[in-house]
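Z., the sequence and structure:
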Amino acid sequence: MPGGATSRGEFRARRSEEFYGWHRPLARVNNLNSEVPLSIVSDQRHKQAGDCAVPRRTGLTLRTIAACLCGLALMAGCAPLSRRPVPPAGYTSVRVPGFPPQIRWDGEMTVQQFRRWAATHLAGVERSAGGNPVNILVLSGGGGAGAFAAGVLSGWSQLGTHPPFQIVTGVSVGALIAPFAFLGPHWDKELSVAFLSPKAPRLLDRRMFGWFGALFGWSLFRGAPLRQLVDEYATPRLLRAVAAQTARGRLLLVATTNLDTGEIVVWNMGAIAAQGGPRALWLFRKVLVASASIPGDFPPVLMPVEAGGRLFDEMQVDGSASSSFLFAPGVVTILPGRIQLLDHANVYLVINGHLRERRITTRNSTPEILVRSADTVLVSDSRSRVKLVDAFAERQGANLKVTEIPASYPLGGFMADLEPAAMQALFAYGEHCAREHEIWGTALAVLNRISYVHRDAHKQPPSCPVSAAPH
């Protein structure tokens, strides 16, 4: 390799820097540099392997180039990321070191766990509403299509009808938007800049060798741009503002997926912010990055946890891997009886995407078939959850208002939607529709519309969610 021999520990440490460096603020715990150094490569060994850095001949053949690329990719696969194991199932108490267990909980609570949780948190939520109906904002995942929710919030504020939300939840890109929505219209400028600024980092920063390198690595894109975006806007000032609103009883909740267990994890971001200081800011940012780290596209986040006096790692990824949006634990939606807090509550649900896939011809291509299948699963999950939440809200006496991106608006897919121009256009679309009072509809109207517009959506100009409904 250029510049002389490199020890295995140094090589693995450099590869692990993106995975660990930003995520390990205290100290390295895996002794990545402790391995025995490799010996200096001899001229004979250099000749036998083929010299990719300093060729002996004036030109490299196509076969030699391919061999070098394969070798480098295989080296990446042969240097796995070091991590501690997940806590064994026998541990009943697992927490992030330095934080109380109450900053998070499993999304799938038992009835007893939910009742304990409700007794602790819902009284504060009711107090923060000041005797008025509780307002809840639910933000779904959707990648670059999250610009729609950001635009809706901006346009809604311009109308002057933006209600204060006592509970805000976010998943994936919805998690990145949630803190700004939680803090209210005074933070719309920061939210707009995050989506519209030409200086915003490009999230689609491919790893070396693109798809081929990702096959032997841990993600297609580098995680540094996503972390840079979160670091830039999740500031100490924002943390203090979230903590102040949390003290009034309001809840800011973000979901991730524990890939080791396949379960959704709900994080009380206000409780994290209330801890204050650099450690709280570190965890606040870390959770946001984890919630938006789409498996395979962005690197997973290793969350250090403690159980029984021992340290472990959890692999946390995009919350959408387990739930397209976060409203209530599964068991709560089928509980008999009513929850007093939800009586006459207003629930605003933003779906950052379509609730039915557009009709296209899927090519005979393995990547396209896999991507299309994954999209179908996510869209179907969103549609099913809207139906479930609607039935739950009706039983509880809550008013559910839903918006989605109509099929007449052409989304381009994950990578296309993350392009700055696409996000700016979608932001402007959401902002315009909100200003025109054409955003919110009932779940029945939205679900009825998707069947109506599906057949000829590609022939229609983009229309706002409400005006797209059949008459």
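Residues 1-60, 72-80 have pLDDT under 50 and may be disordered. The chain is about 45% helix and 10% strand.

Let me know what you think.
H.
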